[in-house]
Amino acid sequence: MTGPGAAAFLPRPAVLLKATRPKTLWAAAAPVLIGWALAYGDGEFHLAAALLAMAGALLIQVATNYHNDYADFLKGTDTEERVGPQRVTAAGLATPEQMRRATILVFGLAVLAGTYLMIRGGWPIVLVGFSAIAFGVLYTAGPKSLAYLGIADFFVLMFFGPVAVGGTYWVQALDMHPMVLVAGLAPGLLSTAILLVNNIRDVDGDREAGKRTLIVRVGRPAGVWLFAGCVVVAALIPVGLLAMGSGRPGALAAAIILLPGSVLLDRLRTVTAPRDLNPVLGRTAQLLLAYAVIFSIGWLVS
Fold first, then answer.
1. What's the pLDDT score for residue 27?
2. Of 150, 191, 214, 261, which cross-links 27 as Cys (Cβ 3.0–4.6 Å)?
3. What pLDDT was estimated at residue 74?
4. DSSP string covering 284-301, please?
């Protein structure tokens, strides 16, 4: 669409792309990738369902980022003192109404992508799909939003972990095994680690804005230990799967994330300037992607 009318209805494409926060999309893609590997390893890979699961996950993440962009602006969380990546609404690149429309549009596309999955997967996928959308909205919507109450971390663990991996497996195999949900804990934990870094970086601004994140509630030192716990437990998930009798030796290679994870932990513990934590945030997202790729390849070759 071009012309003044289109420009007024939605932000410019470059602004929309910026607002997707591309570096955060790995959190949506990683659990789907693991779900692909688990299904393929069981001889249950279904190409159409696999691709639509990835599309749906990415679209829900993008819509959630759009909603978060304008909701935080309206609540006064995003100010000139923000140390994280620029938000398009706060920067004046888009109006709240434009971002609201973009949010609705992309959530609609997610429902469209998920229609086939809901038909194929039945009520479990209907429940998962609409719960994921509700989580995306409630993350920052309203006076009692999840992010502002300090309980978003649990929902990130579940929706970017067992729910995403389990849902991806289910739409292909139309069946479920406990090992799938256990395997899903790893990307959920690493996604939670990303959120912890984000909230440690933003703790001062969040406290001033009344955003009672988990880090605001428990403090930075506890947050650093929570980060360490997330990385260590995620790395040990393949060991747990083997102990359950459901794992594969090749997936143990994913434990190598403990090495870069320890470096990130040291940076998180010692860096004092919030802006200097931005690289740690990006590398934690890369850690999640690395885990998903190594685990998936290891699962398939062993």
1. 93
2. 191
3. 85
4. HHHHHHHHHHHHHHHHHH
Count of structural domains, the chain: 1
> Residue 159 maps to which CATH number?
1.10.600
User: According to DSSP H, which parts of the chain are helical?
Assistant: 4-9, 13-19, 26-41, 47-75, 96-121, 123-138, 146-149, 152-159, 162-173, 178-201, 203-209, 214-218, 220-243, 258-270, 278-301
| Interacting residues of 271 by C-beta distance below 8 A, sequence separation 6+ | 277, 280
CB 179 within 8 A of CB 241: yes
58: its two tokens: 């990415």
Inside any domain, residue 4: no
Q: What is the pLDDT of residue 73?
A: 86
Confidence of residue 78 (pLDDT cuts 50, 70, 90): low
Q: Is residue 3 part of a domain?
A: no
Domain that holds residue 235: 15-301
Q: Specify the DSSP class assigned to residue 147.
A: H
Say how far apart CA 286 and CA 282 lie, in whole Å: 6
Share of the chain above pLDDT 90, in %: 79
Q: Give the number of other Cβ atoms within 10 Å of residue 178's Cβ.
A: 10
